[in-house]
Amino acid sequence: MNEEIENAKFIFNSIKKMYPEIPAFPLKFKNLGFKGGGYLETIKFKSKRIGVVDMVIDTSGNYSYEPDYVVCHEYAHVILAHIKHSLKHNKMHEKLTYKLAKKFNLV
Question: pTM of this prediction?
Answer without folding.
Answer: 0.92
